[in-house]
Amino acid sequence: MANINEIARLAGVSVSTVSRVLNHHKYVSEEKRAAVQKIIDEMNYTPNRNAVDLIRGETKKIGVIIPYTNNQAFDQLLHGVLNRSVEKDYAIIVLPTKYNPDKEIEHLFMLKNKLLDAIIITSRANPWEDILPFTEYGSVISCEYTGHPEIGCSYMDRYASYLEVFQLLKDKGHRNIAFTTARGTESTSTRQTIAAYENVFGKLDRAYQQSDCFRFEDGYAAGQRLLSLDPRPTAVYANGDEVAGGIFKYAKSVGLDIPADLVIIGQENQPVGVGLDLSSLDHQLVKVGEQAFDLAMAKSKAKVETPYKLILRSSI
């Protein structure tokens, strides 16, 4: 089997010149590049990418820890990462966890084992204390704010966004407000949602919170439960536009008028929300993903905030 030394001998150049050609280094004359490439083609030589990565000191691969695929919010974050990776010629390795903490740590070991240059965490199952040791081996970028100086983050101010939604509903005269979340109080975003609610309305009656909402069908089921409460909510804030769409469909099925009988606000400005003309809290997750990639590529520990937008449509 051909090796880099044999290619150098046959092409009449140094081993370092062959290495520069393999790594697309620009400081090689066209004559030498052509001679090396001719031998490579004749011998059908394929470089050992792991060896090349070790020589180069980087893999040009970034891992993205993501709890679920086929979830609009996480898909938007991943879409942003992929946008920038294509521009910069990086490979993206998708690392799903289903919020399994052991699986998450297993993925982080890819950084320690030099299989990745960086890892972007879209949402986590482990405490930061268990993640921090891996920053010794490469960049760890979070898509939520963290004050740890070793970790860069691309984030939006979720608490402020939730506060604005609930204050808007209060200003419009609503007092019986329900909301949905993906996870329970083990989730930072859920805790922030509850904190924002209680800042505006006081102590939360947990009957008006519905967790385990991820998709349209979950929203429909949440609508069935929440809209049977006494007193019935006059407004629902959903943790995604697909979930909001399910609530919308159930509300319509029982004869409720939107927004006269029920105000609905969704999240992340997704196509189903646009189609149903639902108001939506847009955290601009594609931009967050793009910025996360830039931080990972630059090995930056900066904290970069992306502003959110509250989009008001006919559902309020």
UniProtKB/TrEMBL annotation:
Native source organism of the sequence: Fontibacillus phaseoli
GO molecular function: DNA-binding transcription factor activity; transcription cis-regulatory region binding
Domain HTH lacI-type: 2-56
Key words, A-Z: DNA-binding, Transcription, Transcription regulation
SMART domains according to UniProt: HTH_LACI
Gene3D superfamilies xrefs: 3.40.50.2300, lambda repressor-like DNA-binding domains
Protein name (record): LacI family transcriptional regulator
Pfam families the record matches: LacI (PF00356), Peripla_BP_1 (PF00532)
Superkingdom of this protein's organism: Bacteria
Record CDD domains: HTH_LacI (cd01392), PBP1_CcpB-like (cd06286)
